[in-house]
Amino acid sequence: MNRLRRGVVTGLVPAVVALLVSLVVLAVVLALLGVDPVKSLKALFDFGPTPRAESNQVRTWINRSVPLFLSGLAVSVGFRMNLFNIGVEGQYSVAAVVAAAAGAMVHLPRPLHIAFILLVAMAAGAAYASVPAVLKVKRGVNEVITTIMLNSIAVGLIAYLLRGPLHDPALPKNASPSTRPLPESAWFPGFRSVFESFGLQPPSREVGGFIFVAIVVGVIVAVLMSRTRFGFALRASGRNSTAAAASGIPAGRMTMQAMLLSGALAGLVGMPQVLGEDHAYGINFVAGLGFSGIAVALLGRNSPGGIAAAALLFAFLDRAGPSLQRVDIPPSVVIITQGVIVLSVVIVNEVARRMLERSEERRVGGARSATPPAAPQAAEVSA
Amino acid sequence: MSAPVATPARVDNTSRRRSLWRRIGFIATFGLVALSVTRLISGQEVLTDTGTAQAVLALTLPVALAGLGGLVCERAGVVNIGLEGMMILGTWGAGFAGYQWGPWAALAGAVLGGLFGGLLHAIATVTFGVDHIVSGVAINLLAAGAVRFLSELLYAGVAGGGPTQSPSIKGGTPTFDVPVLAGGPDLLGRLERTHLVLLSDVAGLLRGLLLHVNVFQVIGVLLFPLVGFVLWRTAFGLRLRSAGENPWAAESLGVNVIRAKYVAVLASGALAGLGGLFLVLFSGLYKEGQTGGRGYIGLAAMIFGNWRPGGLASGALLFGYTDAIRLRSTGSTAVLALFLFAAIAVGALGIWWLRQGRRMAGSAFIGLGVAFLLGYLGLDSLPNEVTTVTPYIVTLVVLAVSSQSLRPPKADGIPYRRGEDR
């Protein structure tokens, strides 16, 4: 009972307060800029004028949240090991183009074909992530820098692959470049028809069934992180690599494994779009999911459940673009909202944590304040 | 960080400094000679001509200033991954002020834009103790949304403006030629046209820096010695750095750590914003996505430079030079010539190490040099896309092969609360 109450106090209350704070901050910012805040907030929750438009926005919400969730999950695995994998962006793009091209080359029955493509994507993502991993372990190069560089390199690499080796030869000459189309056995089924059985208008395009894969992956990662020896070693090494090494967990190997796992998960980020919507890698491929994933992981505080909630929240905001435009409000309000939410959530979390700590301190009678502060090193500051 | 040493430390320090300068001089001279030889063999005048020097300066400054912002910030113990966002705000501020009131207003706009980002970061990290990386990521996100939003709001119906760009900056930036050397008799120009080894290379590069000297660029370059002086030669700088090394000890000695951090983070935002100004001046207007990750690259240059202004400047210069060559290269010919340069540089380093008895590293580097040489001889051209990403590849390779004995500030990234231990 006590534990439950504590969980509510530390988890739910700050989240709700943060949402309220960000709504207020947002309203003030919008009002200052001369935009009607009530109108824009209303538009954020407006799903559209017709039943068809409503279910279309629900579709966008679902389809958008899946890659955000996977991306956040990939980033969070790195965070757990104290690694900042900014490179999810490059990893998922490279993985998607490689997997799309590989999938078009083979012919397999449906479940195998999809599994093959997913494996290729995970392998490609992990391979691209292995560069910063090796450089970090062998040469001590900061992974933030290498992944940033590799993100930029990925853009050039993909442009080259699309124009050269992986280009679809059947395309007309001045068409935008794309990989060869995937055969139907590699298409991921959707669940648009489910809408009808609830008596709703089905959306005009397919709803990605990849969400179920994402849920399974989320559960696997959750179990792996909190219920296995590997997960424990990873978290221990991330908290304090020296202490972990002293108890037989080598930091180098954990870095390597965390980065590869993060890259493999990143490889899945582009799959809903490649398998479920475009059936090839082309110019429509959505970029920027890797960066949004960082925000999602931070918002979800690195726990799979939290990341799922954060992904749903971000996707909910993303889908509001058309609604905002209908009432003549710049759709970029969405990005501002997301930024404000991340900032308020982390600030409110921090304040809540400190308040909780203080109340605990009072409870145990100031035992903590009795511990001596870190010994000052006077030699350094001789002002 | 070493144990307290008595008087000999001073002597030690001076001699170390001298040997450091000797090494820098040696590397610079060697680099110039290798570049000159490369130019002679490949016939690529682009490698060292006047235009290249000007492009290098224009492309290095944004990265270097963002890095300098990161340096000030991290020296005070606050990690700043929001540099990119602050730079974005700077470019927007420069574009907005510049198209209405000219270049000096653009300068003010860039600084104000960056300051705003810095203020956000300071409030979140210093006042509220939020994780520095979290706050930085949020600022990057927020900045990207804010500039799009502001453009949609303020450039609607403005001629030349739109949701992704500002109208052109009004009026040119003040420039001058240095007389005798570059203007007037143009001695350096004459020397450059002789195409002599080394002499004309040095002349070309120097002339590029002295011709059409941009007052803003002079300000930007002078900020480096200024920041170096303030951080390492003044009491304020010592306090600021002590806040990054051991804020608890600093506070106990009466340093106002919170204030030092605030000043540092605000200055960091202003510097990153100023970096954005140079991007706007380069293309004459604000464009969305203009920063192209240069804030992050500045951060990379700072880490490469071991949290020191000189090292940071050389890291930024490396990036700026390859970027300039890529831009000025016709096709990929000049970029290919860089292969030859790399072969000479890496090969020489390998031989040097072999003579010092480091067999493994030496032979590996000689092998790498041979590979570069074969690449230069064997390849006719590089795919366009590869040429585009050359600066990133070069940065990555240099990071991988350069030694990584880096020493970040000791309390870098650790949230600090007055009156609490860690």
Please provide a written account of the structure.
The complex is a heterodimer of chains A (383) and B (422). Chain A is mainly α and 383 residues long. Chain A has one domain (47-319): ABC transporter involved in vitamin B12 uptake, BtuC (Orthogonal Bundle), CATH 1.10.3470. Helices cover 70% and strands 0% of the residues of chain A. Chain A contains 16 helices and no strands. In chain A, α1 packs antiparallel against α16 (333-363) and α13 crosses α14. The termini of chain A are far apart. Chain B has 422 residues and is an all-alpha fold. Chain B has a domain at 57-172 and 215-310. Chain B is 71% helix and 1% strand. Chain B has 17 helices and 2 strands. Chain B has helices at residues 8-42, 50-75, 83-101, 103-127, 132-154, 187-193, 199-210, 215-233, 235-245, 247-252, 257-283, 294-304, 309-328, 333-355, 359-378, 384-388, 390-401, and strands spanning 175-176, 213-214. In chain B, 50% of the residues are buried. Chains A and B meet through α6, α13 and α16 of A and α5, α9, α10, α12 and α16 of B.
